[in-house]
Hints:
By secondary structure, the chain is of the alpha/beta class. 26% of the residues lie in helices and 28% in strands. An 8-stranded mixed sheet has the order 5-6-4-1-7-12-9-13, with helices on both faces. The chain is globular.
Amino acid sequence: MIKQQENIANVMAAILVGGLGTRLRSVVADSPKVLAVINGRPFLSYLLDKLVNAGMQRAVLCTGYMSDKIKSEFGKKYGSLSLYYSEEETALGTAGALKHAEKLFKSDILLIMNGDSYCDVNLTDFWIWHCKRHSVGSIILVKVPEANRYGSVQCDNDEKISIFEEKSCRTAEGWINAGIYLLNKSLIQTIPDKRIVSLEREMFPHWIEQESILGYHYNGIFVDIGVPSDLEKAKTLMLNHKYNEPKKERT
């Protein structure tokens, strides 16, 4: 059984939304890529819906490029979520952004999400699995036809991650990092401060050597919006998927 104090509602989320989106400039020229419109809604709203539907109450948006537009779109409240903002003056990378936001994190475990990818995994199921395994860090893994674009991840028989490759020359089907993590705050404390740091290239390979980082294998919808062709793919996949859209509340 999951203890009451370990309820996912008490976990703080952080979404990494500071990317420049340079590969999307041809189709999203005047907005951050997380505001790219998918079937009439900003892409980021789909991620916030997942947090709302899991019963979560607090989320930090780690912003950078065009942060004012994200603040203007979502304000301080989205459904049941209170939104907080951690703004980078200069790009700090995916791990550096978390370190920059560290003072805002009020829970011992954090749910981290990349802001430019979507996975339809049930976050509560992931949370329960993470707690039962007493993991210091867990990563959702999804299978894709060509793993080389994303890098690849391999686990041993106990689901402990043994290999984490950000990019590789492999073109075969494989398991990749879906960009959703549950991490103990103690891991965030080990990220170097005030410099560019990558979760994928620096911190995860380091943590895997030092800790038991686990992989949660999931077969389901996964899409990113990093390039124009995938932005169009997202429109099709997410049009055929049902969402429970909460109304925004501005304060």
